[in-house]
Hints:
mainly alpha, two-stranded antiparallel ribbon, 29 helices, 4% strand, globular, disordered C terminus
Amino acid sequence: MKLRNIRLIFFRELRDQLRDRRTLFMMVVLPILLYPCIGIGISYMTTMFRAQPRDIIVLGNQYLPDRPTLIESGRISPRFFKGQSQSAQLQLVLETPEADTTLTEQQQTLLTEARELVALMQQQQAIDDWDEQHPERVENPEYLKLQKEISERFTRFPAAVIVSIPAGFDDFVNEYLERLSPEDPVAAHNFERPLVMFNSADEASNTAYKRLGDVFGQWERELMKLRETQLNIPSQFMEPLFERRISDGDRRNVEDVAQEVQRAANIWSRFFPTLLILMTLTGAFYPAVDLGAGEKERGTMETLLISPAARSEIVLGKFFTILVFSLVTAFFNLASMGLTGFYMITMIGESSLSQMGDIKLPSVESFALMGLLTIPLAMLFSAMSLALATFAKSTKEGQYYLTPLMVVVMGLTIFCMSPGIEISPFNSVLPVVGLGLLLKTLILSPLSEINAYGYILPVMVTSIGYSLLALWWAIEQFYREEVLFRESEEFDLKLWVKHLLREKEPLPTVGEAVFCFLLILLVQFFSAGTFQNLMSAPASEQSSAIVMSLMLQQLIIVSPALFMGVLLTSNFRKTFRLRLPPLKILLLGGILPLCLLPLAMQLQSALEGFFPPIPDAVQQQLGALSNSEISLWVLLLTFALMPAICEELTFRGLVLSGFVRGNRTNVAIVFSAVLFGFLHMIPQQVLNAFLLGLVLGLLAIRSGSLLPGVLFHLVNNGCSVLLQQNVKEFESKGWWSSLISMRDGEPQFTILTLVLCSVGAVVFLTLLIRSKNDVSPGLHPDDPHQT
């Protein structure tokens, strides 16, 4: 064995691998882009999909000690929470002497049901106390009946936790503090303590209970500090509310009403969906690589293309083949999980594992629905895997492309199974997320109060829609000769630098447009700490900090686009559409936002219940619009002029120019609008920005200029600023009363305004769509062959 030969072969193979541009991309560039993008996605999803606020029923809150004050203005004092955001997650429904007049009908109903549940629990505790004193007893039928009734009623109960404060609790606490001494630190531990009821099998209830436990622990510590200066008191009082047992009867003051079958459902709801999603993707992964990149590697792609079948028919045939493998893999895994679980359960009854309790499998109906939902999931994964595998040159490259898909799907699946994340109208329409949450909810049903069956249709429809989009992308790949017959792309650093500096193309490519967008996201991600520091400025500097933050965000958006436009293109003017537009299109750019803004605001108001609540940081930025301390001109500069220039240069400039290179103008407009909407992050703004991005892209294409889009953007954002700045004016009657009215402190457009705007929008959009480019083909800025 010669070391010299080993070294020669090593360097030869290493050079061959490093010459492949796509191998280098997957080894170096993709990790740099992938994980920050995953981090952005996680930050976005944790912000948007915060746990829903949970109702905590507090009975007898008037018996809580006055010092320290636990409840202020109907809410738990924020100082008892570790994080400020947790304070909003617990909403109290209090029993007060004024309950009959101050509470809503729904709150009164909750209090009545809570009192009944507490009464039933006290009956069960009384039976338990009697049984403890009679060891010869058998299972008490009345006790079991009460236990089942309490569990079933609490499962349907809208609130997460019930806390019942006994009468005279404040007097007991004061007496306890007075009797505490170093000689008798546990004095008076036999008084009645608050009763706490929760359901550990319900993630929402369990999470709320844990947060409430932290709150009471912090409150108890402050309570002890009242005597800390006088006596050396041990921290014995931290236990009574949650963990101590009462001496009379030895019963707990914390009652977990979960049944064994509910705990089992909670376990299965995380286990089954996770394996089912991952196995469905795995079943599509390898057949797609073989039928896509494998055809090219074996040299059989040419033979297939000269057959009488159309290319779309070829793609559909391959798609259904991959779909079959994905479904078979999923169904066999589902059946194996069910049979294995059933066999283990039958064996557990005779083994020491029976102490685990009732681990009953999900119902046959749940298994059937999971099988049904696997079909659109397999369709989505099959279409996406086929599209990526078709783009690859070899099976190795295909595995490179499909591995990030696996990583992203795993991340989404883990997120879906996180505690406190529940299905809702908004997340039910998201790819993978909606299906994962629905599978989870179906296993919990009917133990969960969420109506899982109502979400089956929207999840199925949207998932099939995403599958059709992915399938369309795969068909598009088969119609591109440069994709089907491209060779391995060797990378040479000198040639790449030479091409970059001397052989620039007039317009950016699609890849460069996408890379520009990813670069913007990365810069925003790594600048998040700076924005947080600005937002945490003192109250006196809050307004200027918000303005500074928004200006920095706009500079981050436009800088990568300008840098790449200078570095990568030979014609800066064409890339960014810097020319005078036709006067007709320019006028449409100024008139259209006046018609579309009221309609967009009405649509956003109508979909308010569909979207999750807006994060507090964004609320602060929106609140700056109505801040009288900030000059109107500063607001217009920050919210209108800078976004109009910076965002249009980026998205209707470099990004749209890159997508137009594919000679699909309509597709380019849609893709640029999708990226423009995604940049706004907030779901309410994403939809609005996407719809307006379609109009902005159409203005840019029809005029060949950036100016109509800038004018549209400026007028749209400027009108929003003026509306918020003049809210108080709309409260008084004036000539505007027939156009704008006030509702819940927000300006609302009247029916007359919406009708006029709808007619105007239809007319002006029709004129824009039917308008022709007023630039001759040889001078058109979107001509990719023009130098």
